[in-house]
Amino acid sequence: MNLFTFLVQSAGEIATRLFQHLQLTLLSIFIATALGVPLGVLISYRRRMKKPVMGVANVVQAIPSIALLGFLIPILGIGEKPAVFMVVVYSLLPIIKNTVTGLSGINAETLEAAKGIGMTRIQVLTKVKLPLALPVIMAGVRISAVTSVGLVTLAAFIGANGLGYLIYSGIRTLNDYQILAGAVPACLLALLMDFLFSLVEKMVTPACFKQN
Amino acid sequence: MKKKIIALLLGAAVLLLCIGCGPGQSRSIVVGAKAYTEQDILGNALQILVEENTDIRVEYKRELSSNVLFAAMQSGDVDLCVDYTGTVYANYLGYNDIKTSDEVYDISAQELDRDYGLLMLEPLGFNNTYTITVRPDTAEQYGLKTYSDLAKVSQGLVLGVNFEILNRADGIPNLKKTYDMEFKDEVAIEGTLRYTAINSDEIQVTNAFSTDGLLLEYELVVLEDDKQFFPPYHAAPIIRAEAAEAYPELVELVNRLAGSLDDQTMRELNYRVDGQRENPADVARDFLTSRGLI
Amino acid sequence: MIRFEGITKRYDQQTVISDISFEIEKGELVVIIGSSGCGKTTLLKIVNRLIRPTSGRVYINGADTAAQDEIELRRNIGYVIQQTGLFPHMTVRENIEIIPRLKRVNRADVEARSVELMRMVGLDPAQFLDRYPSQLSGGQQQRVGVARAFACDPEVILMDEPFSALDPLTRVQLQDELADLQARVRKTIVFVTHDMDEAVKIADRICLIHEGGVVQYDTVEAVMKYPANEFVADFIGRNRIWSSPAFIRARDIMIQTPVCASADTTVMRCIERMRTRKVDSLLITGENMRMLGIISAREMQTCEDRGVPVSRVMRRQFEKVSPDENIVEVLQIVNRGGLSAVPVLDEAGTVVGLITRSSLLTTLSRPYLDETEAATS
Fold first, then answer.
1. Chains A and C touch (3+ CB pairs under 8 A)
2. pLDDT band, residue A208 (cuts 50/70/90)
3. Are residues C217 and C355 in the same domain?
4. Subunit partners of chain B (3 or more CB pairs within 8 A)
5. Domain boundaries, chain B
6. Residues A31-48: pLDDT tens digits?
7. Is the pair C, B in contact (3+ CB pairs within 8 Å)?
């Protein structure tokens, strides 16, 4: 059997697993962003929170994925839930970091002007800080999105679906075609994510920065 | 190509070591072991056994991959190791038909001697093959002893096994045919995460190697392969014929281990290292002492 | 309008402002000036509560600012800072309209107001309203900053060195425009700068701050003419007045005791008086030093009967200046009439002084002679 016939035969399975992979990735990024951005905002307002939050995010990042999955199985069982949890946990750090960086990089005088003309704290955040930090925040989300594609393959270790199943099954059974059938779509998906999120990044970049 | 490079590098390393040791260390052999607990215990056992009973100095090389170890045995970089009949038969000699344990041992021993100049000594006693295990409460509830027992109740159980056995033709697919099994669900779970999952009752049935120490940790029940579906992987020491000639006492000495390690004993030794974090060398020495071998 | 009462600001042990009290009148443009680090910006920011004073109070229209909602307070005070004060991600329109929109002012009114404000600061609304700040020159950005400060038509506007980042030409232009604008709208403006030229150009009053305290708070002219102490004199520059001749008035340069004669003095005596006093003209006065006429030495030489009263021969038509006319106007009058002297009369026509060509020369040469003195000493 050659690669072509293998691909034709398993086209249906590849497509299904690709779709599952995309779903898991997007779900994870969505949750990671929904958690990471508020955490980053919180840190930027409460300096004292920075060390503990960044510390936890860093430590969590350093836990080997398999060990993390081991911790999660007794709590979340097997399958998608612990997988998404793991990907979210690993994706948080770049999002939090970039949110903090983006918010702290804003010109102090711009912020003072915002305050001085009578914006409330919330208005300064939503009308000035977040719009100006958004390109940097989105760059963090973009990094997370791309790494998430890779991380989601690990979900296969604990019975979750996605392209990882093909890759690791292929590796364990020495089936090169199967590895390719999983790895190539995963690569393409990562590139697609990068591309899509670069578009989002451009979309949220304030017009004034685009000409520069 | 990569393997050859690794072998070459390894060879170069050994050569350098030999030069470093100088001609004064003439009575010495190299013991090799693969990169997992059981092999490390056995490698340590061989080293201690030889050093305590002879004046031969033993150099111990651990953490080798299976193929590198076999290449090193052929090239003379390693003189003595423990390997498994199924591995020799299928992986090194390239057979893929199913034979009985004795046939596999006989063919492997013959061809290693004839084609590779390696002597397969007497089996140690345990068979580290693929096996199927279940949660203790599941075994108790259904009175499970054998794979055939499992087949009768498997519709209500979730199988979680690693990718290799799940998808290989001679893995779960054929096992299910042979025993006429059907599971409620089959999921792939990799590595020791299987044990976590079975311990949390996410799955009830998983695969294991029969001497895996973690089986004791999680008190899993190993079922009997009553139709001998999985090929035999009996452990047996292998020595280079040249080394056996140079040090004739070695063959007799190593053969004293024959039959001294059954599945349960090996599992317990593995568990002392994997589960209780003991030093493999200490575990090996305790074992040899308890059998009066040193 | 704005009253500072005992304002003190301390950071840890360092006192930035100590016990400042003064009041800014409605409709005046007061420049708070001082060298960097003197506390002038801190004082400004205490007005809109960006900085909270350690002690003391600021009252606006009699109301204690500390008792007001700070957001509401700031929205009712215009605030202009250096060009970075514009939000780079918002268009000019969005920048100007942000606070009115947050206040939920009627949309049509807001839009009409934006157009009006743009015209007020001299920018074409159609051309600039939808641009981003980065597409504008520094001067244009600052005009937008001013427009934004006026958006809610506040009574009080604070400006914190708004023109300091601009090139000199644009700066001067914006200063002129601000002065014109202020002449029209008469807002109460507090303007912080370290640039004395700028202060002189735009200020009604100057509040000079040094080491956290007010050294002098007075009109520009008074500060220049009557510096409170050596520091003020040094800070404004001793010859600063010469770059603002409008502030040099006739009363400042006139001879305060001109040689006069009453109308019934004989010509003979007048000639005698001129000779002894070494002057070449006499002011002829009536009751209470009211000036009746003038006569020069030559005019008397041609007079045959020297026993008649001088009122018979004096010239009754003559040029005169008021004490408040400035040196430029005096020079114009002197030049136009080819005069050697011009009397300074008050509103009642009383002689208060005399400006002669030689007194003008003395006055005008002072900055150069002073400089030479300063250089040689």
1. yes
2. low
3. no
4. A
5. 30-127+232-290, 130-222
6. 999 999 999 999 988 888
7. no
Q: Find the closest chain A residue to B166 by CA distance.
A: A169
Residue C149 lies in a domain: yes
- Total structural domains in chain A? 1
* Nearest CA distance, A116 vs chain C (angstrom): 6
Long-range contacts of A206-211 (CB under 8 A, 24+ apart): A206/A131, A206/A132, A206/A134, A206/A135, A206/C88, A206/C89, A206/C132, A207/C89, A207/C132, A208/C88, A208/C89, A208/C132, A208/C133, A208/C134, A208/C135, A209/A135, A209/C88, A209/C89, A211/C134, A211/C135
Q: Which of C229, C244, C259 is the last residue of a domain?
A: C244
Q: How many domains does chain C have?
A: 2
Instruction: Tell me the pLDDT band of C12, cut-offs 50, 70 and 90.
Output: confident
Determine the Cα–Cα distance for residues A31 and A144; give it in Å rounded to an integer.
11
Hey, which chains touch C, using 3+ CB pairs under 8 Å? A
Could you tell me if residue A212 is inside a domain?
A: no
Interval A163-191: pLDDT, tens? 988 888 888 777 888 889 999 999 999 99
| Fold held by B30-127+232-290 | D-Maltodextrin-Binding Protein; domain 2 (3.40.190)
For residue A130, what is the nearest residue in chain C, using CA coordinates? C89
**Average pLDDT value over all residues in chain B:** 89
Task: Tell me how close the Cα of B153 comes to any Cα of chain A, in angstroms.
Answer: 22
Residue B168 forms contact with A (CB below 8 Å): yes
How many residues make up chain B in this entry? Answer: 294
* Domain of residue C176, residue span: 2-244
- Top residue of A125, A208, A211 to mutate, by most chain C CBs within 10 Å, is A208
What average pLDDT does this structure show over C89-98?
Answer: 92
CATH at residue A99: 1.10.3720.10
Span B8-21, average pLDDT: 53
Residues of C in Cβ contact (< 8 Å) with A127: 87, 98
Question: What count of other Cβ atoms lies within 10 Å of the Cβ of residue C89?
Answer: 22
pLDDT of residue B20: 45
Q: Does a structural domain hold residue C372? A: no
CA distances from C113 to A195, C12, C76, C125 (A): 43, 45, 16, 11
| Number of alpha carbons in the 13 Å side-chain half-sphere of residue B173 | 6
Least CA distance to B170: which residue of chain A? Answer: A173
Assigned domain for C290 exists = yes
- We report the CATH number of the domain holding residue C53 as 3.40.50.300
Which residues of chain A make contact with C73, given a CB cutoff of 8 A?
Answer: 118
Is C271 inside any structural domain? yes
Task: State whether A77 and B196 contact (CB < 8 Å).
Answer: no
**Each residue's pLDDT tens digit, B127-184:** 999 999 999 999 999 999 999 999 999 999 999 998 888 887 778 999 999 999 999 9
C216 shares its domain with C317: no
Residue A85, pLDDT > 90, answer: yes
CB contact under 8 A, A74 and B188: no
Q: Which two tokens stand for residue B244?
A: 């056996």
Regarding the domain with residue range B130-222, which homologous superfamily does it belong to in the CATH classification? Answer: Osmoprotection protein (prox); domain 2 (3.40.190.120)
